[in-house]
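Model the whole thing, not chain by chain.
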Amino acid sequence: MAEEKRVVKCSLGARITHWSHTICWFILLFSGLIMFSDWFGWLTPVFGGANGANLFHRIFAVAFAAVPLFGLLYKPESFAGWMKEAATWGKDEIKFMMMFPFDLIGLKVYMPPQDRVNAGQKFNSFFFPIIGLLIGLSGVVMWFAHAFPMWMVRLAYPTHNICWILGTMQLMFHAYLGSLHPGSGESFWAMFGDGTVRASWAKHHHTKWYNETYGDDA
Amino acid sequence: MANKGYLVDTSKCIGCRGCVVACKQWNQLPAEKTRFQGTYQTVPDLTGNTLTMISFHEYEENGKMEWYFTKRQCMHCLEPACMKVCPQKAISVNENGAVVRDYDKCIGCQYCAAACPFNVPRYNKETDKETKCSLCTERTAEGELPACVKACITGALQYGDRDELLGVAKKRVGELRAEYPKANVYGEKEAGGTNILYVLADEPEKYGFESDPKVSTAIYAWQDIIKPYFPWLIALTGAVSVFSFFSTRLLGVGKEEAHEGESIDG
């Protein structure tokens, strides 16, 4: 097939933030597991000992927080636009969520037309930032424990745990749905590649967005 | 074996701090450089190098100065919260009931400091470990007294079986009640009971103790619910994803819409 028309789905800022968070999340997860349970003692040498893991955890925690904060300050309108996109819920979004479990296991169901981000991705657009914010705040309290009252420190530990566990739980879905799930290859390479997808794929998976944005010259 | 500990009879303590020096000497801990704060208390708080201290509390009551002082160190809880939260299982209870740490296993995460209802464990920067009193486990194993007890010149510190010491403490409180009506035993039931017992002549707050110390609910939620059960959620979504990977392929999804989208494995 000849070169097909491509459309931009993921902006450079979105890709940089996503990349940095992908790397940070995994390094933070593995270095943090050492501090979660002695089950993960075998991971210790990877970071040069428990103290090394502790250091890695702090360095990448700063990066984890700094990249989106920088993006937020540099292009607040971009973040606002994303949030507005994610906050737009209608019948199609609800239908999508209801039909999603069937689609997930491979049954053929009618999926209503979606925006640039589908209903599941809209859910994640709120889920992950909230998790990120809470894990960051609880992390600050744990790091600088002496500067905070004891009850906050005691609350920070379970909060940090709930956040990484729920975050990693959702990450399993997110990673699978964005890569090996049939039809996801395009968006995977859009996020980790040059940000573009084939126009026909965009039309099929994100119909509403495609028609609004590229509809005229389709 | 029966739980062993010691009794701190504050009514016999003269605040000489011999116990503090003996502790430093036995554990080979350096002195702290501190500034005079207008009190007899030599160190502001326990630190990674100060495992026990005498805390001084001054109050003006009925127009005259009242002075309260007591020894502070690890209480050696019967149900130690620090042991519960330690992710490296570096904390254990020895055959005498003392709560001891394995410094080779400690990674300096300081979870124990947050969990302790008595706010005792302290971080030592030089060693990158969390420290606290071990009830001189290596001395008592050889039949010696803990260093602080051995140094006490007034008999305010008394080492022995917890049950026996409890009897001694209650008897002593009975005697003190005539002059000090609020005299009480501290450590019998506090935070589930501790191996270190106190005879206090007045309310625990006056000595800087909490009257009803408890392990925080947040710590229980963290250790008893979140840690053992929540990780299964990750396994669940992982399993659903694997299931979907195979079921979508078995059901042939994507074959006729291959043009619209392919998975990265083609």
